[in-house]
Amino acid sequence: MSSPPRLTDCRESDCANIPSIVAFRQHLHLSPPTNPLNCAALHSIHLPFPCVMSTPPLLKKESSPLLLTDDGDSFLVSPRSGFTDKYSLSPDPTHWGSSLSPNDPEPDDDLHDPESKGVHRPSDFVTGRGLANLGCIALVAIALVGLFLGYPVGKFVTQKVVSNEGSANVRVNATGQVASIGNFGLIDLDTPSDAYTITSLHSGKEMQLVFSDEFTTDGRSFYPGDDPYWTAEDLHYWSTNNLEWYDPVAVTTANGSLKITLSATPTHGLNYQGGLLTTWNKFCFTGGMLVTSATLPGTNNIHGLWPAFWAMGNLGRAGYGASLDGMWPYTYDACDVGTAPNQTLNGLPEIARTSGSMDPTQPYDGELSYQPGQRLSRCTCPGESHPGPIHSSDGSYVGRSAPEIDVFEAQISGENLGTVSQSGQWAPFNAGYVWFNTSDNLVIADPDNSIFNTYIGGAYQQATSVVTNTNQKCYELLDGCFSVYGFEYKPGFGDSYISWIADNKLAWTINAGGLAADTQTEISARPVPQEPMYIIANLGMSNNFGAVDLANLTFPTTLSLDYVRVYQYPDAINIGCDPPDFPTQDYINTYLEAYTNPLLTTWVDDYNQTIPKNSFVEPC
């Protein structure tokens, strides 16, 4: 049904035949001129739709048209202009002249007409606008890659490489960590420039600095995870029957030096609290010189304190017994009886059963060794657990271990004189623990200041040691001065050596010949430690090291280290805890609990692991 016509849709001439409009016109024509639109009179006209009237002849041209509704009400609207008449559309879309059916395409929209054929728009494969778009995308991609890849890589490289004032370009440690000693480098930027090189007291040649910590920032924390290189342990050092508990709170920095404090503070059931700090698995070095400048704790004439500064192979963690079982203090790369438990096989050689300690207070009864055997020896059967590497000559494993070299263990001599014991610890052992200490192999720089140590070993270690007088003023309760201690060593066999430094002077040297093969115990030569070595500093007490004069010792007491520095020859730089020729990281990760749980004291009984098969002891 069609809609009724509206006056808004037609002009006056178009509406002439509409009955209601005829009556309306008649009414208008009869209206007096003074009242051309009498709206009240229109109530009698019933229009079925609103109607907008054009201006009648009786009205002025500018008068507004009248809108009438079917109930007789009316109101005025503004007249249309010629412009709006030209461009206005009817409110009824059916009068627009276009089909409203959704099935019919619009006449000007071939793009959306699915039936349209042959619509062609000229275009080029490459356009200026397209190139601009691609260029924009490329720039954004380059910026993103630079932000998320280039920047981190660049930052890592610039932090890792050290090239200040002739210092060495060295690798970061095995865990990939970058130093955070206040200035983000392996070499502390507070290290004086004149300390970037040093002259070897052994060879007279120049060595260069590869690591340093000056401890100039006070209040540093060494709790696990707080420092990139150092970790203070939280354990009891049961293996030497120490009287104190090692607690991280006892280790900090103050007045520009490292402070390790021993106090009469009850801790974990023990009456004393001390500190042990290490760089285990964080910083290691192989070969070169390790030095520190120390103020020893207490005074120079009261017995009992045990301050120490030393190094150990990374495959053993100090204080973690399971990691050390069958590893410390071996340094051995041969497949013979030296790798066997107790250093014997089927009761032989006889001298290994009779040349040991005869101390009646000990259970050894002349047995030379109570060691369980070298756990990771050259005799390890193929396929057994071993960190490697493998000898190219015969396909056997390289013998691995956790050797020890002591910069110093401070003590008080019988004459109430401050001294330091400077030692190497070894396994397997010579008969009677007597190494080849001839004048070619044992060189004491000043016999008036240094003497051969009377302690040469026991059932668990052989010691090569010399005792040297300290600077008697450089103690905490005396002048408090600092004195330089260290060692320099060349790993391996042949011309290898270890030289010790006390009070910044050469104290003594052991040459590799002193550790030659021993036909009596049927062992091969022991190399100067070839393992990557980490640094340890500690202060404690133990009757194992000597009498402890608790009545006269003063607590708290502190070992102070002004700095720790490592030097190497420019053609022999070897920094890192996981070097390719002596890897450690995979093995440590495989047996991580042994290296993180100090309550595991043995490899087999506590940790429930097996000893790798040894081809010398049993068939593979």
TrEMBL record:
SUPFAM superfamilies named in the record: Concanavalin A-like lectins/glucanases
User: What does the entry give for GO biological process?
Assistant: (1->6)-beta-D-glucan biosynthetic process; fungal-type cell wall organization
One GO term of the cellular component aspect? endoplasmic reticulum membrane
Its localization reads: Membrane
Which parts of this chain are annotated as the region Disordered? Answer: 86-121
Q: Could you tell me the keywords of this UniProt record?
A: Cell wall biogenesis/degradation, Glycoprotein, Membrane, Signal-anchor, Transmembrane, Transmembrane helix
Recorded GO molecular functions are: glucosidase activity
Q: Which residues form the GH16 domain?
A: 194-572
Where is this protein chiefly located? Answer: membrane
Coiled-coil annotation reads: none
- Name the family: Belongs to the SKN1/KRE6 family.
The protein in question is named Beta-glucan synthesis-associated
Which organism is this protein's natural source?
A: Mycena rosella (Pink bonnet)
